[in-house]
């Protein structure tokens, strides 16, 4: 699937849509999910244009891959999630991925069940 430059996260990166930023550096932007599924629900997106995790791993240079995972860790540290957290990356149709720009969900702030994503 080619990258759709009109997806909602591309618009957030272009500052066309507002977001509640948690953390940002040259590789990632992290912001609160607009429809939280847990007490803490934050999304981490790479600044590069990748449809999903598979596209990212297949095409991103190593520094962007390192930067994405480091950005997730820095976001977790910023949120001070001392009781733990869950990371979810939906990929492709069967996962229910809605937005075609790679994103990692950070879920935390309560005891998580299987129903949390
Ligand atoms: P997924 O189903 O893995 O593609 O997750 C997409 C997530 O993006 C959902 O949890 C939505 O609530 C969230 N979302 C969609 N639009 C926005 C937005 N403008 N700002 C923040 N989160 C959003």
Beta content comes to 15-25%
Main pleated-sheet profile: 5 strands, antiparallel
Helix percent band? 25-40%
Instruction: Report the order of strands and helices.
Output: HEEEHHEE
What is the count of β-strands?
5
Span between termini: 24 Å
Shape: globular
Major sheet: arrangement of strands: 1-2-3-5-4
Bound molecules: adenosine monophosphate
User: What structural category characterises the helix and strand content?
Assistant: alpha+beta
Query: Overall mean pLDDT score?
Result: 97
Detail the topology: elements first, then pairings.
Blueprint (H helix, E strand, L loop, with lengths): L7 H6 L7 E4 L3 E5 L7 E7 L6 H7 L2 H18 L6 E3 L15 E5 L9
Antiparallel strand pairs: 1-2, 2-3, 3-5, 4-5
Report on this model:
- The protein is α+β, with helices and mostly antiparallel strands.
- It is built from 3 helices and 5 strands.
- The chain has helices at 8-13, 53-59, 62-79, and strands at residues 21-24, 28-32, 40-46, 86-88, 104-108.
- It has a 5-stranded antiparallel beta sheet.
- A hairpin with a 7-residue loop joins strand 2 (28-32) and strand 3.
- The protein is globular, with a radius of gyration of 14 Å.
- The structure holds adenosine monophosphate.
- Adenosine monophosphate is lined by residues 8, 17, 19, 33-35, 43, 90, 96-99.
């Amino acid at each position: 699937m080619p990258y759709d430059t009109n997806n909602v996260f591309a618009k957030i990166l272009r500052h066309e849509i507002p977001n509640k930023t948690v953390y940002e550096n040259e590789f990632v932007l992290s912001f609160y999910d607009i429809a939280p599924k847990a007490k803490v629900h934050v999304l981490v997106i790479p600044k590069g244009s990748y449809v999903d995790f598979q596209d990212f791993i297949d095409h991103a240079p190593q520094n962007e891959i390192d930067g994405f995972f480091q950005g997730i860790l820095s976001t977790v540290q910023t949120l001070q999630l001392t009781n733990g957290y869950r990371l979810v990356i939906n990929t492709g149709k069967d996962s229910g991925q809605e937005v075609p720009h790679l994103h990692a969900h950070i879920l935390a702030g309560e005891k998580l069940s299987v129903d949390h994503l």
